Amino acid sequence: MPGVLRKDEKTGRFVYEFNGNAVYEWEQTLDDVTIYIKPPPFVQKGNQIKCQITAKALKVGLQGGTQWFIDEPSGGLIDVSESTWSLEEDDHDASQKVISIYLVKANRGAQWNTALLGNGAVAALDPAAQEEVRKEMMLERFQEENPGFDFRDAEFNGSVPDPRNFMGGVKYS
Fold first, then answer.
1. Could you tell me which of 162, 110, 104 has the C-alpha nearest to residue 135?
2. Which residues form the CS domain (predicted)?
């Protein structure tokens, strides 16, 4: 049975749930995908976590353990040399820690329809959510290319173009 992907209206992040439990949250920009994982309550320091980021996969587990609690292919190609992770206080619950995994996209502007592919049972963005993410990324691109203009209330007639390819494509900084 595949997991469920839903948008958390409070945080604006997508939440991947399996068997009714939130496994991770994620969000994306033109440049990156950030994944948020709540570790077990006893985890208080980053050296208790092990995290391996490769160009096509992510593994997260407890230091000294033999199993990974996340061991999945990624939803897109990762620039490993620019990607990182940290253990931080949760912005939404100060009593809780969160593992923040910052994956830099190898292909700037590429839209990921899922953060992690899962065990062959992918919970991907539905078409309406894909369109919403494409709009957010396109507005981010417009803002970057036209500093000083406010695009927050911009609307698109018809479907939103792909920000990676529209009018010459995204520029790399």
1. 162
2. 19-116
